[in-house]
Amino acid sequence: MKRGYAFLGSLSILWSVGVAARHVWLQNLPPDQVPSCGPGLDYWLETLPMKSVLQQVLNGSGECAAIDWTFLGQSLPVWSLVFFSILLLISLWQLFRKYQTAPVKRLRDKY
After folding, report:
1. Rounded distance, CA 43 to CA 38, Å?
2. Spacing of C-alpha 67 from chain mean position
3. Domain extent listing, the chain
């Protein structure tokens, strides 16, 4: 059961690492190669099916390349990538480590 939770956690964290890495990549593109800005999310939600909205959001647009906030010289996607990578390492350690099997204690063994 523990390995199942660690596996599911690793998958979701791996997805987060991928999204953060793509965002860092978008922010480091030269200005002439940044994808053009499209319509807003509200417009997409009103006019497109949810699958298309998710594809458009994950493809990114020009406003994703703008760095609005930094901490210690790094943008939020960089910090997200760092911390998600640390969480992924911890989750993978939980997945592959050896668990000790405790003996089953029964009530009759007590008396």
Report:
1. 10
2. 19
3. 2-110
> What element of type H or E holds 70?
strand 70-71
What are 32-59's pLDDT values in tens digits?
776 665 666 777 788 888 888 777 777 6
**Which residues 6+ apart lie within 8 Å of 108 measured at CB?**
none
Contact yes or no for 69/75 (Cβ under 8 A): yes
Cβ neighbourhood burial of 52 (10 Å; 0-12, 13-18, 19+): exposed
- Report the greatest alpha carbon distance in the chain: 78
Each residue's pLDDT tens digit, 57-78: 776 555 666 777 778 888 888 9
